[in-house]
Design a protein that fits this description.
Elements (H helix, E strand, L loop, with lengths): L8 E5 L3 H11 L4 E6 L2 H11 L3 E4 L2 E2 L2 E2 H8 L7 E6 L4 H10 L3 E4 L4 H12 L4 E2 L4 H9 L5 H7 L4 H11 L4 H8 L3 H15 L4 H10 L4
Parallel strand pairs: 1-2, 1-3, 3-6, 6-7, 7-8
Antiparallel strand pairs: 4-5
Helix pairs in contact: 2-3, 4-6, 8-10, 9-10
Length: about 220
């Protein structure tokens, strides 16, 4: 796990050189950029050579796709985590990258501070998604990629508890969940307690890991 005071070591993968330069400039001293690439073959090479903590990855690349890069290191370099950064917010792109093993998916509308925060959270093992992608991620909770055990556990939760669980797993604060779902803070706290109790988990960090391990995020 990356210490809170350390700068995550990252590789930036995007086929537009000027966009890569802009991202690197925007992130500034929040991260340590150890490499960059513009296509799948060079991405595979630089990630293997530098072993970054986080790979900031576009979905569509020359020579293949972001999924191909993620799958190439799945199981081979477990310490390398992938965060998709794309202009695409198509459901198939989001779910495809997440099921391949990406730890998060944000769109290029994100600002520099938010992106830096997302990178840190992914480096620490959390899953991160742009808020407007919530519906697509929710589809993955009950889709064919979810394990039978996870689907059985989800049946223990009410529909509202499943919504709260989704936001908790993605790292939303209680106040943010209350705003997103238009419910009171006290109601969020009640649902959160029920979610953890029913899933036999003790913290939201364990919840995020549970969701990722069961291919729900």
């Amino acid at each position: 796990m990356t210490p809170a005071t350390a700068r995550p070591r990252i590789v930036v993968v995007d086929d537009h050189r000027l966009f890569r330069a802009g991202v690197i400039s925007e992130l500034g001293d929040a991260v340590e950029v150890v490499g960059e690439a513009g296509d799948v073959p060079s991405a595979l090479e630089v990630v293997a050579a530098t072993a970054p903590e986080v790979v900031l990855l576009d979905v569509h690349l020359p020579g293949g796709s972001g999924r191909a890069v993620v799958e190439a290191f799945r199981g081979r370099e477990p310490a390398v985590r992938f965060l998709a950064l794309s202009v695409s917010d198509a459901p198939e792109d989001v779910i495809d990258l997440v099921r391949a093993g990406a730890r998060g998916y944000v769109t290029k509308h994100i600002d520099g501070d938010e992106l830096a925060a997302a990178i840190r959270r992914v480096a620490e093992g959390d899953a991160v998604f742009s808020p407007h992608l919530a519906g697509f991620v929710l589809d993955a909770f009950t889709g064919p990629g979810a394990s039978a055990t996870a689907r059985s556990d989800l049946d223990l939760l009410t529909p509202r508890e499943q919504e709260v669980m989704q936001h908790l797993a993605r790292g939303y604060a209680y106040k943010e969940i209350a705003h997103e779902l238009a419910i009171s803070l006290k109601t969020v706290e009640s649902h959160a307690s029920a979610v953890l109790r029913k899933l036999q988990l003790s913290s939201r960090h364990q919840l995020t890991r549970w969701a990722v391990d069961h291919k729900l995020l």
